[in-house]
Amino acid sequence: MKEKDEYILISHGDGGIKTQELVEKIISKYIKNPVLDRFEDSAILHGCRQKLAFTTDSFVIDPIFFPGGDIGKLSVCGTINDLAASGAVPKYMSLSLILEEGLSLNSLEKIMKSIKLALSEAEADVLVVAGDTKVVNRGSADKIYINTSGIGIISQSRELSPSRIMPGDRIILTGSVADHGIAVLSSRKEFNFKTKLKSDCAPLNNLILESLSCSKNIHAARDATRGGLARVLIELARSSKHDFHINSSKIPVKKEARAICDFLGMDPLYIANEGKMVIFVTESDSRKVLDTVRKNRYGKDAEIIGFVEQKGSGNVILETVLGTNRILDLHYSEQLPRIC
What we know:
Elements: H1 17-30, E1 51-59, E2 65-66, E3 69-70, H2 71-84, E4 89-100, H3 105-121, E5 127-136, E6 144-154, E7 170-173, H4 179-186, H5 205-214, E8 218-223, H6 228-240, E9 244-247, H7 255-264, E10 277-281, H8 283-295, E11 303-308, E12 316-319, E13 325-328
């Protein structure tokens, strides 16, 4: 006999018995550790004498379940990857949930299981040490929103920053683009197409750590999430005040992803990814870093897609397959809203 599903009630967010049951029976069951188990207003973190990286992010993806992941996995990987991109080793996270009245407890449990699995896949002993849960009236939110913050430790020799990007640097992309955005799109009711593509959502902290271990000449990294590869390159070019020359034929795009983008009139360079990193490294070390990235399970399709030019004013110049050049620019709006 099928077990009867239960649902989130307004009382689950009022701080009483139902709140306690929700925390004890579902949430803390998957993220138990000595720091969090104290259930205090703030977490006291010991042993952090090195330089710290701190990040925060909110996740409102629609739908909350999609091929290759869900909002829970996304929240963990997104936070870990933001820390990794600064050269930090992820250590601590907060996890705050905004739940809509009527969300099934079964859905929440699936999401919490996914969070636990993603933390395990990161292989970094990342602890969720603080959190909060609120419930809003039906219609005041869309099922579930998640906010996370993360803290990581940076060694002096591993800090990564756009300010360190130098002329001559090679630009490595760790794999194919647009998979995540298309996988999410295929799950939306207003679109009617099937695809074998799955979200690339993955923790990239070890990929970056392995790269930093093989080279002291990595200058910057950034995960190519909302706005896709194009947005990341444009932002980094502008902040570093260098021109980037990108060879479009070197950018990995799966045939199915390109075909779907062509059909829908979308540019794969502007579609979000959740498991791809852009790395800037000196030309002399670029090949060994590329080889190291390719040995990681999340970087097997990595390519050197371009270089930083000697002169320029912060443009991204894309060399097309026809041999012509065009300058990439930011779009006025996202091709795919609520993609993360």
